[in-house]
Q: What sequence folds into this?
């Protein structure tokens, strides 16, 4: 109870003193405010100042404090805990604080440097690029072959020179989800010459233009539903030694095939053997022969079908590449078509040995079966349906 009353009295006293001190400037005796925050003490000078006729303390703030303390002394003497003398004997009061004014010495210091402004982050332009699902690649080569035999060579033979140029371009689309579209253009053209051929100065030993386009919809895992279109012909007319007769030519023949079936993506031997295998149980093959005199030799019935032949059947196409070592690889292409009354089978094999970055050696093996060709030898005997071609070369190559 006493503590609460004391707190209320001090609160009223402090409010009055603070309001007075706010209205008047500070005086030299303003240090007497410490009496408001010490245990309630009976100060002798408070009573003497109040009973004196003339006050020696003109400071209005100190007078207000004296009046407040005197009011407490008279009305609530029970709240007074100690007297000034008792505090002096206890050594708790410092006389210098009572009699002197405590002043604060203000020293001027250098102004602190302002805090640097945080750098404003520059606006960032976010560019969202559309993914590119197309991949392009290609390779080209220029190969040379030479064989020299002297006139008096004990085994006979004939000198010859040949060169072959190849170019392969690919543009493949794969969105990694459902659709893929593969496009491959292959071009090969080679010439050879031999002293024994007095009719033709140059003859082709390799000649093909072939475009393969295949669009697939993913079925499951590595299987795709596929529509494949393949077209091929040659650049130049085909000749034989010491004969002027043209055995083949541009658009003679021209083959166009389309097949609907399934395609399997090969990734074997730790992805060193890659490629595709396409099986088309529903296929159509269109063959056109521009030179009418060559139509029969390419299976076109004369005179019923003057220039073209259309067959329905099934086809198989496989294109594989095996990187046996870092410098040695094998590329293989298998193509087969049957209309159930004729058959055509091709197996191209290219073995490539990379000597340096731009030098390579090739071995090409090409067995072929075509029972639509009805050719006969000079003696009237029928030729075999099996055909074979082979060459080896060394020259420049470049991949891009």
A:
């Amino acid at each position: 109870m006493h503590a609460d009353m004391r707190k209320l009295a001090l609160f009223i006293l402090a409010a009055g003193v603070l309001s007075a001190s706010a209205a008047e400037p500070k005086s030299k005796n303003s240090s007497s405010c410490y009496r408001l925050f010490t245990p309630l003490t009976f100060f002798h000078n408070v009573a003497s100042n109040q009973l004196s006729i003339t006050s020696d303390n003109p400071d209005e703030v100190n007078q207000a404090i004296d009046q407040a303390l005197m009011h407490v002394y008279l009305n609530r003497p029970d709240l007074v805990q100690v007297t000034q003398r008792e505090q002096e004997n206890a050594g708790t009061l410092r006389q210098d604080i009572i009699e002197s004014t405590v002043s604060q010495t203000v020293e001027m210091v250098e102004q602190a440097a302002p805090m640097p402004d945080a750098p404003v982050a520059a606006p960032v332009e976010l560019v969202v690029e559309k993914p590119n699902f197309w991949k392009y690649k290609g390779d080209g080569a220029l190969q040379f072959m030479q064989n020299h035999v002297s006139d008096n060579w004990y085994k006979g033979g004939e000198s010859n020179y040949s060169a072959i140029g190849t170019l392969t371009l690919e543009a493949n689309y794969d969105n990694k989800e459902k659709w893929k579209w593969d496009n491959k253009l292959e071009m090969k053209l080679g010439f050879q010459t031999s002293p024994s051929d007095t009719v033709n100065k140059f003859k082709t030993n390799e000649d093909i233009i072939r475009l393969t386009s295949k669009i697939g919809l993913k079925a499951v895992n590595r299987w795709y539903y596929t529509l494949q279109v393949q077209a091929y012909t040659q650049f130049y007319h085909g000749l034989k030694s010491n004969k002027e007769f043209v055995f083949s030519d541009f658009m003679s023949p021209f083959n166009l095939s389309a097949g609907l079936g399934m395609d399997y993506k090969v990734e074997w031997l730790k992805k060193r053997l890659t490629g595709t295998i396409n099986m088309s149980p529903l296929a159509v093959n269109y063959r056109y022969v521009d030179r009418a005199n060559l139509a029969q030799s390419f299976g076109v019935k004369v005179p019923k079908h003057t220039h073209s032949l259309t067959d329905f059947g099934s086809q198989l196409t496989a294109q594989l590449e095996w990187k046996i070592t870092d410098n040695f690889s094998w590329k293989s292409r298998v193509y087969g078509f049957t209309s159930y009354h004729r058959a055509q089978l091709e197996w191209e094999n290219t073995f490539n040995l990379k000597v340096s970055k731009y030098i390579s050696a090739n071995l090409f093996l090409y067995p072929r079966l075509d029972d639509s060709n009805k050719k006969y030898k000079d003696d009237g005997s029928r030729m075999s349906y099996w055909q074979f071609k082979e060459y080896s070369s060394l020259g420049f190559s470049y991949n891009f």
User: Anything to note?
Assistant: DSSP finds five helices and 14 strands in the chain. The first helix runs from residue 2 to 23. The two ends are 101 Å apart (CA to CA). Residues 17-30 have pLDDT under 50 and may be disordered.
